[in-house]
Amino acid sequence: MAELRALVAVKRVIDFAVKIRVKPDKSGVVTDGVKHSMNPFCEIAVEEAVRLKEKKLVKEVIAVSCGPSQCQETIRTALAMGADRGIHVEVPAAQAESLGPLQVARVLAKLAEKEKVDLVFLGKQAIDDDCNQTGQMTAGLLDWPQGTFASQLTLEGDKIKVEREIDGGLETLRLKLPSVVTADLRLNEPRYATLPNIMKAKKKKIEVIKPGDLGVDLTSKVSVISVEEPPQRLAGVKVETTEDLVAKLKEVGRI
Amino acid sequence: MSGCGFLSRGAAALAAAATAVRASRVPRIFTGTHRRLHTSLQSCSFAKELFLGNIEQKGVFPFPEISQDELSEINQFVGPVERFFTEEVDSRKIDQEGKIPVDTLEKLKSLGLFGIQVPEEYGGLGLSNTMYARLGEIISMDGSITVTLAAHQAIGLKGIILVGNEEQKAKYLPKLASGEHIAAFCLTEPASGSDAASIQTRATLSEDKKYFILNGSKVWITNGGLASIFTVFAKTEVVDSDGSIKDKITAFIVERDFGGVTNGKPEEKLGIRGSNTCEVHFENTRVPVENVLGEVGGGFKVAMNILNSGRFSMGSVVAGMLKKLIELTAEYACTRKQFNRNLSEFGLIQEKFALMAQKAYVMESMTYLTAGMLDQPGFPDCSIEAAMVKVFSSEAAWQCVSEALQILGGSGYMKDYPYERFLRDSRILLIFEGTNEILRLFIALTGLQHAGRILTSRIKELKRGNVTVVMESIGRKLRDSLGRTVDLGLTGNLGVVHPSLGTIVEEQLVLKRVANILINLYGMTAVLSRASRSIRIGLPNHDHEVLLANMFCVEAYFQNLFSLSQLDKFAPENMDDQIKKVSQQILEKRAYICAHPLNRTS
């Protein structure tokens, strides 16, 4: 029976089904009153960690999220899916706007050391900023090996075998623990948080801490200048023959 | 001060009349085993007081609120359920094949949706009425699933929660909450629908007094083919308090395993085709006496309480459906062009959206107001309010789904789109859970009975020359006219009920108008209460709410004025005598009797 412990990072993002609208002042997108939920790739990460726990390969799964108080809802969902306890790194709403992958990675690295975990799970990217950096940066800060875009995971004693989906196909790595893994779409299909489990999760603990408690500085060197809608897609042009097509393409300088 | 007291002769007629539709007046019953019916010690008095011309503000203002904790809990529940219904429920397939796939049912069970209101200690979620209503908004996405779940928990197993003893609860609730066993509610018979008291299924006590032998047939039982636990109502012989033997209804928990339980083939229905509806027959089924639910002979009240307790949630179920319809049809109206303009620019189309939004707003407000009242400690009985919610929302559903279909025009008529299915699914809402006709009579008569009782006692006081009562009545009248409370036109001088109302129970057309007025009043109260709160706490879009609330109030006000003028027997607006005459002449010949317009006499 393994004594491995896992930390899963989850992010609260605007729900994938919502139609995004840009704020009139172009400072960002409208988030007030908009439906939010757990980032789908984070769900897959939680699911994988919980499955390892159900296979008795992992002893404890800790869910963590950085941000304002609403993050606790997301942590609760992770608890309802099977995580044992949660940590909420509280960041006031105004400051949370400038939280980027580097800041979150610093927090996760410190937490991973503090909680003495063997595995850090994340989703490969968040659907709001599509950064795809946090997992990699966390591994870098911890100096741990990383298996990103994981589509299959097998625990082998003190190592893990990770199959990664990359542009060229599938790559299989064997990593020594402790390591960082980011989840890709085909890793698993996350379970529904059933209502009885949500109720049981109410009894699980969520610890609230401040970034300062971990000695992490959250200042960002990146600032958002403006956020705009993508240009409207123009109608296409129909052509009759291949010659016309070639001529048109030459016209717009594509060939 | 509930109504188990004595009545004077004057109001006896009213009371006797209303016993035919009795429900909310339930006396406390203590037995040796201390089983207490969870019903009106304390009644919602808001609707009843309206009959006396009083608006009991403290019952309805401010609009009920739940704590932030409860709110985030409900929101946590809403997420997975909504996701499940959007991603994994194929309503079209369920409707076409006439059944809910087994693994959909299994997933519903694992989500916990089979035991929403079963107390936690018995394995359920133990959610309040408000939370149950909230979940109803999402489940309404599929009519067949809604009805299957409601038949199981809102009525099928509800009796065990309301009046079951500890042993019954511990034995049956856990497996019902998990969905391992499904429940069904067996009251209706081929010859007994609205007239539930006339059922003929019999339960006779065995020689050794250990069993009841159950014989009879029930019809149109939802989940009849799936259920293993049935709440069955049957006539039993009871020795009355005066020593005579009477036939009274008793409620039983019957397991399919008791033997003799068979069901017929699933009925082919117009709508909610995925739900299982069939005949259930009991042939010499042996039911242990421990399975009597509540008191022997007290079954009618048990049935009424069960039906009353789940009724209010229809409002949120329909509101959820309407909100979805508004989204779907708006998408269409804003993109479809005719005469080179979007449909959304045309007044007749815009009117339909205003209608749907208004109705959804009113029924949401009425439902959560009622749910808030029901969630008060002490299990108050708000059966009139719940009945009003049911009548309003079922009729609004039928009207609005039809208008939504109309927006789509020809496409709305096609099976490729869901509108025709929504229409077919909603038609049942006016029929089951108490037909709207019966509920209107119930609303009117219960209220009149209450008013009659109060007013009659005042008459007695006045006759005795009780000065304080006279002063109070006059003072009240003055205050009322200054405070401009509603005058239902049922009172004459000094607040005396008109003697001609002695046979009120037969005057269904009058009662219908009274009920309609009350329903409108309750709706108005609900929207005013909700909109005031929204303004006060600054909810987003509260200006829009004010628009909807005012729109509804103006419309309801004029409808009420018309109904009130019709209440006057000799008013020109009142066609009751003509209606009676016409129907008599038609029903005598059982056909349309006018001569054909083309006929000649020579």
TrEMBL record, chain A:
Electron transfer flavoprotein alpha/beta-subunit N-terminal domain span: 26-218
Sorted UniProt keywords: Electron transport, Mitochondrion, Transport
Function: Heterodimeric electron transfer flavoprotein that accepts electrons from several mitochondrial dehydrogenases, including acyl-CoA dehydrogenases, glutaryl-CoA and sarcosine dehydrogenase. It transfers the electrons to the main mitochondrial respiratory chain via ETF-ubiquinone oxidoreductase. Required for normal mitochondrial fatty acid oxidation and normal amino acid metabolism. ETFB binds an AMP molecule that probably has a purely structural role.
BP GO annotations: amino acid catabolic process; fatty acid beta-oxidation using acyl-CoA dehydrogenase; respiratory electron transport chain
Family stated for the protein in its record: Belongs to the ETF beta-subunit/FixA family.
Gene Ontology molecular functions: electron transfer activity
UniProt superkingdom: Eukaryota
CDD domains assigned to the protein according to its UniProt record, in alphabetical order: ETF_beta
GO cellular component: electron transfer flavoprotein complex; mitochondrial matrix
Pfam families assigned to the protein according to its UniProt record, in alphabetical order: ETF
Binding positions (AMP): 9, 39-42, 66, 123-134
Gene from which the chain derives: Etfb
Compartments in which it is found: Mitochondrion matrix
The protein's assembly and partners: Heterodimer of an alpha and a beta subunit.
Protein name as it appears in the record: Electron transfer flavoprotein subunit beta
Broad class of the protein's primary localization: mitochondrion
Source organism per UniProt: Cricetulus griseus
Annotated SMART domains: ETF
Automatic annotation (TrEMBL), chain B:
Reactions that this protein is recorded to catalyse: decanoyl-CoA + oxidized [electron-transfer flavoprotein] + H(+) = (2E)-decenoyl-CoA + reduced [electron-transfer flavoprotein]; oxidized [electron-transfer flavoprotein] + hexadecanoyl-CoA + H(+) = (2E)-hexadecenoyl-CoA + reduced [electron-transfer flavoprotein]; octadecanoyl-CoA + oxidized [electron-transfer flavoprotein] + H(+) = (2E)-octadecenoyl-CoA + reduced [electron-transfer flavoprotein]; (4Z,7Z,10Z,13Z,16Z,19Z)-docosahexaenoyl-CoA + oxidized [electron-transfer flavoprotein] + H(+) = (2E,4Z,7Z,10Z,13Z,16Z,19Z)-docosaheptaenoyl-CoA + reduced [electron-transfer flavoprotein]
Cofactors (names): FAD
Gene3D superfamilies in UniProt: Acyl-CoA dehydrogenase/oxidase, N-terminal domain, Butyryl-CoA Dehydrogenase, subunit A, domain 2, Butyryl-CoA Dehydrogenase, subunit A, domain 3
Biological process according to GO: carboxylic acid catabolic process; fatty acid metabolic process
Record membrane topology: Peripheral membrane protein
Subunit-level organization: Homodimer. Interacts with NDUFAF1 and ECSIT. Part of the mitochondrial complex I assembly/MCIA complex that comprises at least the core subunits TMEM126B, NDUFAF1, ECSIT and ACAD9 and complement subunits such as COA1 and TMEM186. Interacts with TMEM70 and TMEM242.
Protein name: Complex I assembly factor ACAD9, mitochondrial
Natural source organism: Cricetulus griseus (Chinese hamster)
Taxonomic classification: Eukaryota, Metazoa, Chordata, Craniata, Vertebrata
